[in-house]
């Protein structure tokens, strides 16, 4: 726990320094390695570096404490006691009660009486990915294996929340990679997607985070992630026709470099 606190303070300090310009080149902190990962460093030119997802994030998805998305809120959720968790739930419920009242509802009527508490619990569940970290998700599931053919897990169902409108987007993610002596337990691919999906997201970033986390964990020859999702903020407001979906992809390594590899992946997905 104290180790976590140190990491957070360190991040805060970095942010503070860069804001004040007292530390001109962007400071790069070499993150502590997970036990499963033996070598190498983060690619600072990676897509995620172009626009940090959070002011506290200067590194790609696997950060020093494995949280993969440190923020004040995520940290305090991880470290909370059961009493603090109950207080958090109550604060959320109170806020929801305010919203309902402002929207014109009578929060004392029967149907809605306990809605704030239900909604608070639901939101905590929908965002439980903030409490997960990659180390625990992939624990004991990286194996040395002499397999160098494409591995694909398709049709992983994901449910996420659009960070711009706080409404769901959901669909399927397809993950492929070509191993370089290391493979990940197949069920962990879905767990990885789930961990990033259960946060406030935009589909583009979710796609990238899954790809880059896998790339970081396995150092494979390449990673490909394709996601197709329906966004409630679009379909329910009539911006998008019901039934249409948004597709995003992230190709790394040989999937990015070689058209043939990319095509093989898309063919296997039935997309070509
Ligand atoms: Zn939206």
Give the SSE map.
Elements: H1 2-20, H2 72-79, H3 82-102, H4 115-126, H5 134-138, E1 142-144, E2 151-162, E3 168-178, E4 182-184, H6 186-197, E5 200-201, H7 203-218, E6 222-231, H8 232-235, E7 246-253, H9 254-257, H10 259-269
Helix pairs in contact: 3-4, 6-7
The protein binds zinc ion.
The site of zinc ion has 5 residues, from loops.
Write a structural description.
The protein is an alpha+beta fold and 272 residues long. Among the domains are: 73-130, GTP cyclohydrolase I, N-terminal domain (GTP Cyclohydrolase I, Chain A, domain 1); 140-269, GTP cyclohydrolase I, C-terminal domain/NADPH-dependent 7-cyano-7-deazaguanine reductase, N-terminal domain (GTP Cyclohydrolase I, domain 2, 2-Layer Sandwich), CATH 3.30.1130. The chain has helices spanning 2-20, 72-79, 82-102, 115-126, 134-138, 186-197, 203-218, 232-235, 254-257, 259-269; strands spanning 142-144, 151-162, 168-178, 182-184, 200-201, 222-231, 246-253. The strands form 2 sheets. It has a 5-stranded mixed β-sheet with strand order 5-2-3-6-7, sandwiched between helices. Strand 2 and strand 3 (168-178) form a beta hairpin. It binds zinc ion (ZN). Zinc ion binds at residues 162, 164-165, 231, 233.
- What is the topology, as strand order, of the major beta sheet? 5-2-3-6-7
Tell me the radius of gyration: 20 Å
Strand content: 15-25%
Low-confidence stretches: 1-61
Order of helices and strands: HHHHHEEEEHEHEHEHH
Estimated helix fraction: 40-55%
Given this structure, which CATH class of one domain is correct? Alpha Beta
Report the bound ligands by name, code or SMILES.
zinc ion
Distance between the termini: 49 Å
The oligomeric state is single chain
Average pLDDT, rounded to a whole number, is: 80
Question: What is the 3D shape?
Answer: flat
Question: Which structural class matches the secondary elements?
Answer: alpha+beta
**CATH architecture identity of one domain:** 2-Layer Sandwich
The CATH superfamily name of one domain is: GTP cyclohydrolase I, C-terminal domain/NADPH-dependent 7-cyano-7-deazaguanine reductase, N-terminal domain
Alpha plus pi helix count: 10
CATH topology of one domain: GTP Cyclohydrolase I, domain 2
* DSSP E strands, number: 7
What summary fits the major beta sheet?
5 strands, mixed
Enzyme class: hydrolase
Function: GTP cyclohydrolase 1 is the first enzyme in the biosynthetic pathway leading to folic acid.
GO molecular function, one term: GTP binding
Keywords: Allosteric enzyme, Folate biosynthesis, GTP-binding, Hydrolase, Nucleotide-binding
């Amino acid at each position: 726990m104290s180790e976590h606190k140190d990491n957070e303070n360190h991040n805060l300090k970095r942010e503070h320094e860069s804001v004040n310009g007292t530390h001109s080149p962007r400071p790069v902190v070499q993150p502590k390695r997970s036990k499963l990962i033996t070598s190498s460093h983060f690619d600072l030119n990676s897509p995620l570096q172009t626009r940090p997802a959070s002011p506290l994030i200067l590194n790609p998805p696997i950060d020093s404490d494995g949280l993969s998305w440190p923020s004040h809120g995520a940290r305090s959720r991880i470290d909370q006691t059961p009493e603090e968790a109950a207080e958090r739930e109550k604060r959320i419920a109170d806020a929801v009660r305010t919203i309902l009242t402002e929207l014109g509802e009578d929060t004392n009527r029967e149907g809605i009486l306990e809605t704030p508490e239900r909604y608070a619990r639901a939101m905590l569940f929908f965002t439980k990915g903030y409490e997960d970290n990659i180390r625990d998700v992939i624990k004991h599931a990286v194996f040395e294996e002499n397999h160098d053919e494409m591995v694909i897990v398709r049709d992983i169902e994901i449910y996420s929340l659009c960070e711009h409108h706080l409404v769901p987007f959901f669909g399927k993610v397809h993950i492929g990679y070509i191993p370089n002596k290391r493979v990940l337990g197949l069920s962990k691919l879905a767990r990885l997607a789930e961990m990033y999906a259960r946060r406030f997201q935009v589909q583009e970033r979710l796609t990238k985070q899954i790809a880059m986390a896998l790339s970081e964990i396995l150092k494979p020859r390449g990673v490909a992630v394709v996601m197709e999702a329906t966004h409630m903020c679009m379909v329910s407001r009539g911006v998008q026709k019901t039934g249409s979906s948004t597709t995003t992809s992230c190709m790394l390594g040989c999937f990015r470099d070689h058209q043939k590899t990319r095509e093989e992946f898309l063919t296997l997905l039935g997309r070509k």
